[in-house]
Amino acid sequence: MAKTTALVAEPGTGLDRLKTGPARLGEFLKDVRAEMRKVVTPSRDEVKNTTIVVIVTVFIFAGYFAIVDAIAGNAITFVFNHLAKSN
Question: How many separate domains does the chain show?
């Protein structure tokens, strides 16, 4: 019974979908146009401030990962050297 319901809920034949294609395309393009009217271009100051924030954040993360990498690398080297000496 569930399969019957699923089959009924599906759209019509391929020919029906082909016939309604131009209308669906027109509706889609109207929706796109309406959404594009809502788009606001940022000002020069907003772009500059956002760029500065991104660059500073990248440097902060680069420093953080450099520290974590150095600590992890030294820890692994210590463990390998300790295991090599015990043999």
Answer: 2
